[in-house]
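Hello Y.,

Per our agreement to keep a running log of every chain we model this quarter, I'm adding this entry. I've kept the format consistent with earlier entries: sequence first, then predicted structure.
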Amino acid sequence: MLHVGLDLSRRRLDYIALAEDGTDVDVGAAPPDADGLRGLARRLARHGEPIAAVIESMTGARFVHDTLELHGWEVDVADAQKVRGLAPLATKTDRIDARVLAELSRLDLVPAIWLPDPEVRAERERARWRLFLVRQRVRLKQRSLDADGLGRAVPGLRPVRRPRSRAASAPRGPRALVFACPNRHRRSLPFERERGVMSRSSRPAQHAPAPDEKHQSPRDKSRARLRI
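Predicted structure for the entry above:
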């Protein structure tokens, strides 16, 4: 079996193929597009051995993974942070990274991450696209009803709330007269009496109750008799 380490960059894909004993079988670079990956698969297929490849998780790694698996490769996507923990390097280049990934594949120490199968991903993409189309259909129906002025609610979508005017947001009923009066305490007294609520300024003055005759002093009693 050949163990191939892949390092993806913006313009090229560096690779190193190692045998089971660790000797170099092939070293080179290929364009990171469909034609370049197809040529890489044909080049390494000449050795007539199964191929196990490793690539770090980055942008474009899934495309390389899917394309090479269609050509019969066994490709693992390695966690980049765990790879750095397993093999810390003082000098970091594309060729060195590819060699490190190939050695990890040969020693069976690849910290691979799980990826769903292409069929499962296709099903997820179809379900996601159908949900998007359903939401767009409901949104267009709601817009057409709002344009017609019907204002009916569509199931699955919250109705559009139009801004209320200042007159519509004002209080109604007897309380509206209270807010409309310039002098609130005089005009609001009948309505507040009906509800049992009276403001402090609108309450009638409470006079002190007349003193009881039992608690009057003799001097007050004599004054009361003189007044009579």
